[in-house]
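Could you join me in thinking about how sequence relates to backbone shape in a protein? We need material for that, and I hope you will provide a protein of your own picking. Label the sequence line and the structure token line clearly, so we can match residues to local backbone shapes. Would you write everything just below, so we can both look at the same thing?
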Amino acid sequence: MKGADTRKLNDQSDRRAFRTLDRMENNSLRRNVEDNNDVKDSCVNLKNSIPLLKELFYMHRKVGEGAFSSVFLATLKSSSGHKKFALKHLIPTCHPERIERELQCLQQIGGKDYIVGLELCLRNRGSVVFVMPYMRHDRFSEYCKDMTVEETKGYMRALLSALRRVHKFNIIHRDVKPSNFLYDRANRRYLLVDFGLAQQYTAENLKTIKETNMESVEVPTIRQKKSDENNLNLQPDSASRRHVSNKCYCFGKAKVCTLCLTRPQQAAPRAGTPGFRAPEVLLKHPSQTSAIDIWASGVMMLCILSGTQPFFRSPDDCTALAEITSIFGSYQVQQCAQKLGKKVIFSENLPGIDLMSLCLKLQKRNRSMTYDSEHNTYKKVSSNIEYPKEAYHLLTKLLDLDYKTRITAEQALSHPFLS
């Protein structure tokens, strides 16, 4: 009876498993059909928006999508060589200045040093399409765990060469990340793409941070108007103002004083992708430089050396700062904030972690298992990749918390690991 009961339970489990697999397969097929229909609709809508596309290109499929654009794979109708192109369609609500800035970057900077170039720009009313060369590429998650030392050198050398050229034009890319640095692993080809968030800067326009206790501000006095016995209206007296020092007494405390409430909210660029934002961006430093791109390239190198992708999984800026603190230590982050005119308070003091030791531990854990997409399973692998100490030294230079002492792309290319 016991054996029969066991077989019965096993049969029931198998039937439930097969029913579950059937449902998953049907749902997957349904989603694929819906996705294909969405892609077809997108292609049709794009052709209707810019009729000239129908005459020039065969549109095949959507290969990328972001908050401000969609990218389609296309081939030229008049070409016999079947050359592939990437058509980047900017959403009609994009600000004209944003479109102009990206177009200028592609024209002036693109086409050299692993930076995507521009073949053609088409516009019809509010619709704009950039026609660029298409490059087949691999997913970062598929190769970041098993890149050899020489492969890593080539990858970082190409990335930093592209950034060196961008920064020579006083341009900040602002969105350096693996999906914007395409890598064709089979042919060792690289391409930096997507200048949608690019920003121009000059040293003369960089603002200087002043000590908060050295400034003064006009603060309106409060006049108390009694309308009835239990109702008090607090109104600012426009006629009476008092001149007070900008120094407040809530600084560093768990409260906000009236003086701080009257300050205008500080505006600072925050564009970028979570997990790749530099400390000065997270701390809302108004004077951001090309060093934010270098930090992002350091995060990419950290993913490679540790075999961890993504490395930072922050949903917001506060969590992102906490993640950085868990690596570099609370004292180092506080020192970084102080140089930017900020103060960060932690509930406890966290020590910093040696990046080389951290990467070696994560390598051992992450490179022992790899995902087999063909069989949808994880399998054990043996990895003998050993990076030299120079690689970790470069990593610490790229991930310098202080943007003023952070290594530049030009300097990084002369580093012993890459030279």
Summary: Confidence is low (pLDDT under 50) at residues 1-10, 16-35, 207-244. The first strand starts at residue 57 and ends at 65.
